[in-house]
Amino acid sequence: MTEDSAKERILSAAEELFAESGFEATPTSRIAERAGVPKGLVHYYFRRKSDLLAALVDRLPDEQIEPATVVVPGDLAGSLRRLVVELDRRFTGSLGLSHLLWREADTHHVVREALADRFQQLVRLVHSVIVGAAGGRLAVADVDNASGLLARAVSHRHATARHSRDDRPAEFDGELTFLANALSSKVRKAAPAD
Amino acid sequence: MTEDSAKERILSAAEELFAESGFEATPTSRIAERAGVPKGLVHYYFRRKSDLLAALVDRLPDEQIEPATVVVPGDLAGSLRRLVVELDRRFTGSLGLSHLLWREADTHHVVREALADRFQQLVRLVHSVIVGAAGGRLAVADVDNASGLLARAVSHRHATARHSRDDRPAEFDGELTFLANALSSKVRKAAPAD
Amino acid sequence: MTEDSAKERILSAAEELFAESGFEATPTSRIAERAGVPKGLVHYYFRRKSDLLAALVDRLPDEQIEPATVVVPGDLAGSLRRLVVELDRRFTGSLGLSHLLWREADTHHVVREALADRFQQLVRLVHSVIVGAAGGRLAVADVDNASGLLARAVSHRHATARHSRDDRPAEFDGELTFLANALSSKVRKAAPAD
Amino acid sequence: MTEDSAKERILSAAEELFAESGFEATPTSRIAERAGVPKGLVHYYFRRKSDLLAALVDRLPDEQIEPATVVVPGDLAGSLRRLVVELDRRFTGSLGLSHLLWREADTHHVVREALADRFQQLVRLVHSVIVGAAGGRLAVADVDNASGLLARAVSHRHATARHSRDDRPAEFDGELTFLANALSSKVRKAAPAD
DNA sequence: AATGAATGAGACTTCATTCAT
DNA sequence: AATGAATGAAGTCTCATTCAT
């Protein structure tokens, strides 16, 4: 069953190699080699090299995280922490993808758009988690701002993790707690008049 | 005045082109062309193409921002806002540089390190501004966390600004205010005896 | 019949050109030109230029001479003369090869070894012919010395023939006869009891 | 006094490098480097690269060997042995020269002629030594043949010594003795009537 | 459907040579 | 006299892409 089709193997090889060395620096011949297929087959399935990149973006896994799996109502800090743990896991599980998206975003609009989409998804996800954990007692603007801030910080953290030797994202608990406290203090302040 | 030396023109051309299309996708011949010099001269000054990249990183402007120029003690939100305005200006003024650093960080460790350096500088800068504006009445950990969060968010904002049509960084005031408030509320809470 | 495969034509062209102008002085483009193939094909078959040289040495014809074809027992001088005539014919028939070997021996160890091999073959061949023509009545040491001397002289004669306008080896009969006589006198002296 | 002029240092560097890597494979810049002179100076003294080769051949040391220094009348084998020892010493003392001459003889007629000259000198030298050691009792033809044979063998021996790791010429005493005996036997046979 | 031989444009780089100083 | 910046021709090699089978 792990006997992937040749086409699939080509795509995986391309993903790895584009992530390792970049699109331009990767010859199609090396893709064929790593996929263990004859050179001609790469161009048989993907006439031009850029078609490979497009196909790679198309098959982007849509691994949504379900807010419910990390949210504990009333425990904002914990919920955010669990969210980030989960995000980190996804990130580590598809490093090639992440490398690829960041690397080629500048020159391939297809990729750029995919990257932007993912960021928007992330913002919405953080938003949901905050709302789910803190209840509806927060000002909409505050939630928006916190979500934006956190999504950016998490994205940046992953983006720079790519650059480190072991691809492991940096410590982040302090920042998370700080943010959770900031929001929580708003809740209290927003509700004494109740 | 714009009569730069040939060597300088080559570097500028390389910076632009590497930023536009990436290192690999930029032929040295196009660099020579844009710099208006014969092809041989490029390799006379920079034996291999990668030497160009190294030179580009070496001459990285060290445009430090002086905290004092944006800090107004007591006005944290305003100070941060002025800081970001200034950072955005620097960013817009050297777009090529920023593109270059992010694009090539994955494959050229010189570049990667330069990018990491710049990030650390940014963290320290934000730190100084917060301390300068809020006085010494904040917990060290809070300042650290807020600085990290903000530096990451600002970096990410610039990194993704590269991907937009007009290179303009996204709106950010809301996030800034939120963060300033978060910190300010700590000050008050930390000094209830006042 | 002369419709050789492209690969074969490339090798022949390379052999000729390397012999004419030397390895370094021969552009691969000129090889392609003379072989009547597109430039890319040369590097398709032989990734690097030096692979061409290696291939050339590999396909070195192993044109052994069968001692029996020149030996007439009892006629040492005649046998040696027939041997040299035959060696000269081989030499003239593959001039390119000979040029090539001597020219590039200094810088390419593959070639150097091939040249050394050929010399050893030659020594053994001369040895066989002497023994075959003179019978077993000669001292081993004498045969060894004479073989070495003659093999060296013949090699040198071919090596310098390359340098002459018409590639024709110099007259050599006198030397041959002298050597045959030298050996023959030993036979008589070794068997005075006859 | 070892403070050679720049021009002299350039020539020596060229001789070494041409011998090591060949004429074509040696950039003039490397000659300048090894000579410790600025690049421009090489072409200041020798406008074209080939002028260097010509100059090198022009200044060829004419290290003639005086027959009297090795000849002991009556001792032919010893005389030849001493001659070869002396020739080997000259050879080892100017290896660069020898490499150079053999390497570039194929493509530069100036060099080719110099090499041929040296060979003729050698033939005459051997001739003188034989005559000196054996007296006038040998047939002219025999002396000619033996000289040619020996000169060729010695030349070949040096030519192939270049190809060995340590540039040391191979053992040769057996061959020499054999040749001396061959000649000596003629003397005896030629003079029984005395 | 699949393959790998074949192609040619073009990339990087080297280098002899010129020339202004 | 001496230098090293500058030039451009040319060399080796890579590679996406095509095509006959």
From TrEMBL, chains A, B, C, D:
Quote the PROSITE patterns the UniProt record gives: HTH_TETR_2
The record, for InterPro entries, names: Homeodomain-like_sf (IPR009057), HTH-type_TetR-like_transc_reg (IPR050109), HTH_TetR (IPR001647)
Q: Which domain of life is it from?
A: Bacteria
Which ranges of the sequence are annotated as binding DNA? 27-46
Signal sequence, start to end = none
Q: Which residues form the HTH tetR-type domain?
A: 4-64
| Keyword Zinc in record | no
- What GO molecular functions are on record for this protein? DNA-binding transcription factor activity; transcription cis-regulatory region binding
Q: Which UniProt keywords apply?
A: DNA-binding, Transcription, Transcription regulation
- For whether the record's keyword set contains Transcription, the answer is yes
Stated name of the protein: DNA-binding transcriptional regulator, AcrR family
UniProt organism field: Amycolatopsis saalfeldensis
